[in-house]
Amino acid sequence: xxEPIVQDYIRLVVELSRSxxxxxxxxxxxxxxxxxxxxxxxxxxxxxxxxxxxxxxxxQKFRFDPRAAVIEVQRQRGNPGDVTLGRSxxxxxxLDEEEISAxxxxxxxEGKNGRYSLEDFESTxxxxxxxxxxxxxxxxELKNRDLVQFGPLPFLFFYPEGFYDAVTxxxxx
Length: 173
Prior knowledge:
There is one protein chain. By secondary structure, this protein is an alpha+beta fold. It has one domain (about 5-35, about 65-170): Sandwich (Tumour Suppressor Smad4). About 25% of the residues lie in helices and about 25% in strands. It has helices at about 5-15, 20-25, 40-45, 50-60, 160-170, and strands at about 30, 70, 85, 95, 105-110, 115-120, 125-130, 130-135, 140, 145-150, 155-160. The strands form 2 sheets. A 6-stranded antiparallel beta sheet has the order 2-1-11-10-7-8. The protein has a 5-stranded mixed beta sheet with strand order 4-3-5-6-9, with no helix packed on it. The chain starts with 5 loop residues before the first helix and ends with a helix.
């Protein structure tokens, strides 16, 4: 099966109303950050962004790279709950990269408010939110447009409503 990309979701946003999109997509999304302006993909994947680059990425009007990978933050077994991430096939989200620990991190589902937090599992190369390293065992609540990074792999985190709004804001009138 092909990995979904932003273009697949843009098509749905164009075709569906906001309420129909949200009824269909209940899980948060992570959009791979393929590169920053003026940089090649390899450079962006293997280095931390400086503070100025991060501010630019977080504040800009979103124009997603239509080829960027999209990962749904959901359990393999379908029910809402904690979502594990790592290199091992036992995880709900598998990132098959050498720099990712076998059991790297977990998205903790906060059932009361429907939000997620992120917790590092003492990974070798770290987990970061907006370039701040997470302390192993301490969960940090996630917000729309948070830059989450597992080792060298950066993603933008979105709840479904935040993703829909970001995509529609970037569409031509």
